[in-house]
């Protein structure tokens, strides 16, 4: 295969033990069942599914928050298995994550400058002055101003906070960025701004995205490849065109049918059906 | 006569920095059997308007209106006690977070029954029968068993069905749904929207859908009001709004939909704000 694959996941499982109670025996829950995927450098893979389908568990494993139970993950040629080897600084620099809720993912008592510098403080030996320079540059890169450096998270709107979260994630110049529903909590117009920002950053820094979402219209806009998950399993995996134009699995078809249609034809059809 | 007629509604909140005007002179008219969608971003005042109608705003809010009639009854002059006879019975509301809207300490059957006890003469067994009937009508499987379930034992979609059952318990004339599907998955959203539209058509009640999702508007509404920063930007029937939006803000909102993307970049509302001057 000539494609430059940056993220290689093979047959990954994740099981959680559920503690038994007085009347309930202990059991295990398999959140992710044998997921395999390849992501080419500089491309975007969208992971789609409902709550409880294991898409966030997958994100946690890719970002080394959680260890996989079995299977292999390889990011930029570096095998990841944190339950056996732990996490090195090198691994940390490969991958970063942006969470869904920009209100919850920033510490309210930490100034924005410190938020941005913390990854450098923890993972590099960079002197303070250099860290500050980098943080200021990064603020501008994500469309904020240098004077925002000393402010606290509560002084920002949801869209601005998501910009800060993105800035923090790219401070380490990662190769891979995992975006866990980065625009679901945002208004439509702010969503458009953030999606534009992500597209710009991808061009500029050659980033690879794993974009987790339940919103198919966003996925269709941003993804190169699409993976649909259902109860921990991959039920559909292919290029955007393959999945959207010719969905194979019943669940994918249900998902498409359930997505509200905002085009004029469907409105006309609905009104006609209602009048009849 | 309209079911709900509100003229020139203003809502101000007292804040430490002086009064903040959340809603500035907006009219709302809803007829029986009509689905009105109020669409806007956060801060547009879409929820505030309906909370003001329901009398659910905190004391810091000052509500003024030239007219605020529900079926000819002036809502402004009602005492809290009189208002409670209307609210929950003839006008009811469902909210965004179904799990947070239910009391975790009581079974869903008990909570449904409370509405009936407050507004109807039903007693004992009759209440229980009606509760099961309601739960059946909103499509909860095994209603006889689920009556005794607590909210945490049900999924988000099921809880929203319970909320809908509660809202329609007394056959309201007007149902206000404040972002009823925002917290739910797409497939569940479809079921809930279908259910709401079906109930509305069967009973002929008026339905107000508050939402920020243009897809939901397209799927449910007859008429649409677009709001921005407490002002009404545009009011039109659903087809002409999507086909031929007049207001620059509506245009901006529609073109920011990812499915309408034409080029590499999505147009944002601020691109339009400069050109349209709103």
From TrEMBL, chain A:
Task: Pinpoint the ABC transporter domain residues.
Answer: 7-256
| Matching SUPFAM superfamilies | P-loop containing nucleoside triphosphate hydrolases (SSF52540)
Q: What is the uppermost EC class here?
A: hydrolase
Where does the UniProt entry say this protein principally localizes? membrane
Which keywords does the record carry?
A: ATP-binding, Hydrolase, Nucleotide-binding, Transport
Q: What is this protein called?
A: Glutathione import ATP-binding protein GsiA
Q: What processes in GO biological process is this protein linked to?
A: peptide transport; transmembrane transport
Q: Where in the cell is it found?
A: Cell inner membrane
**Enzyme Commission identifier(s):** 3.6.3.-
Q: In the UniProt record, which is one GO cellular component term? A: plasma membrane
Alphabetized PROSITE patterns for the sequence = ABC_TRANSPORTER_1, ABC_TRANSPORTER_2
List the Pfam families.
ABC_tran (PF00005), oligo_HPY (PF08352)
Similarity section: Belongs to the ABC transporter superfamily.
Q: Which residues cross the membrane?
A: none
| Entry's Gene Ontology molecular function annotations | ATP binding; ATP hydrolysis activity
From TrEMBL, chain B:
Q: Give the way it sits in the membrane.
A: Peripheral membrane protein
Q: Which SMART domains match?
A: AAA
- Every copy of the ABC transporter domain together lies at 6-254
Q: Which Gene Ontology BP annotations are present?
A: peptide transport; transmembrane transport
Q: Which PROSITE patterns match?
A: ABC_TRANSPORTER_1 (PS00211), ABC_TRANSPORTER_2 (PS50893)
Per the record, its GO cellular-component terms are: plasma membrane
- Where in the cell? Cell inner membrane
Gene Ontology molecular function: ATP binding; ATP hydrolysis activity
Q: Which InterPro entries match?
A: AAA+_ATPase, ABC_Ni/Peptide_Import, ABC_transporter-like_ATP-bd, ABC_transporter-like_CS, Oligopep_ABC_C, P-loop_NTPase
- Its main subcellular localisation, reduced to a broad class, is membrane
Alphabetically list the UniProt keywords. ATP-binding, Cell membrane, Membrane, Nucleotide-binding, Transport
Top-level taxon of the source organism: Bacteria
What the entry lists under SUPFAM superfamilies is as follows: P-loop containing nucleoside triphosphate hydrolases (SSF52540)
Q: Which Pfam families match?
A: ABC_tran (PF00005), oligo_HPY (PF08352)
In the record, the note on similarity to other proteins reads: Belongs to the ABC transporter superfamily.
Q: What name is this protein filed under?
A: Stage 0 sporulation protein KD
């Amino acid at each position: 295969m000539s494609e430059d694959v940056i993220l290689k996941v093979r047959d990954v499982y994740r099981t959680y033990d559920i503690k038994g109670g007085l009347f309930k025996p202990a059991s295990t829950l398999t959140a992710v069942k044998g997921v395999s995927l390849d992501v080419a450098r500089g491309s975007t893979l969208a992971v789609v599914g409902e709550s409880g389908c294991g898409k966030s568990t997958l994100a946690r494993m890719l970002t080394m928050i959680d260890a996989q139970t079995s299977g292999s993950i390889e990011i930029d040629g570096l095998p990841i298995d944190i339950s056996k080897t732990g996490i090195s600084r090198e691994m940390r620099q490969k991958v970063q994550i942006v969470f869904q809720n920009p209100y919850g993912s920033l510490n309210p008592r930490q100034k924005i400058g410190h938020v941005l510098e913390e990854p450098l403080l923890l993972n590099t030996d960079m002197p303070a002055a250099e860290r500050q320079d980098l943080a200021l540059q990064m603020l501008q890169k994500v469309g904020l101003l240098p004077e925002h450096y000393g402010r606290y998270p509560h002084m920002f709107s949801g869209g601005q906070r998501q910009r800060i979260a993105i800035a923090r994630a790219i401070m380490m110049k990662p190769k891979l960025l995992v975006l866990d529903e980065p625009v679901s909590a945002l208004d439509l117009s702010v969503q458009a701004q953030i999606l534009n920002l992500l597209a710009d950053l991808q061009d500029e820094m050659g980033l690879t995205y794993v974009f987790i979402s339940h919103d198919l219209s966003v996925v269709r806009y941003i993804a190169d490849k699409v993976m649909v998950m259902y109860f921990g399993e991959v039920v559909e995996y292919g290029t955007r065109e393959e999945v959207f134009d010719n969905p194979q699995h019943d669940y994918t078809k249900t998902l498409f049918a359930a997505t509200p249609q905002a085009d004029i034809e469907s409105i006309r059809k609905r009104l006609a059906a209602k009048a009849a | 006569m309209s079911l709900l007629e509100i003229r020139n509604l203003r809502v101000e909140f007292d804040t430490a920095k002086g009064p903040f005007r959340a809603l500035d002179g907006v009219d709302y008219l809803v007829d029986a059997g009509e689905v009105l969608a109020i669409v806007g971003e956060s801060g547009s005042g879409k929820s505030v308007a309906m909370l003001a109608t329901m009398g659910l705003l905190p004391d810091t809010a000052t509500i003024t209106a030239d007219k605020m009639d529900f079926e000819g009854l002036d809502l402004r002059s009602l005492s809290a006690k009189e208002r409670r006879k209307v609210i929950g019975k003839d006008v009811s509301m469902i909210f965004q977070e179904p799990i947070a809207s239910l009391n975790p300490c009581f079974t869903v059957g008990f909570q449904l029954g409370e509405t009936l006890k407050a507004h109807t003469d039903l007693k004992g067994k009759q209440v229980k029968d009606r509760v099961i009937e309601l739960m059946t009508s909103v499509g909860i499987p095994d209603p006889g068993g689920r009556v005794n379930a607590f909210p945490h034992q049900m999924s988000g979609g099921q809880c929203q069905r319970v909320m809908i059952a509660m809202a329609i318990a007394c056959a309201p004339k007007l149902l206000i749904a404040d972002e009823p599907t925002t917290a739910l998955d797409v497939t569940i959203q479809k079921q809930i929207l279908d259910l709401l539209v079906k109930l509305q058509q069967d009973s002929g009640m008026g339905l107000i859908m508050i939402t920020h999702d243009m897809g939901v508007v397209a799927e449910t509404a007859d008429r649409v009001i677009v709001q921005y920063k407490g002002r009404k930007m545009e009011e039109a029937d659903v087809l002409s709004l999507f086909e031929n939006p007049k207001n620059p803000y509506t245009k901006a909102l529609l073109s920011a939909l990812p499915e309408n993307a034409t080029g590499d970049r999505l147009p944002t509302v601020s691109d339009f704000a400069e050109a349209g001057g709103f």
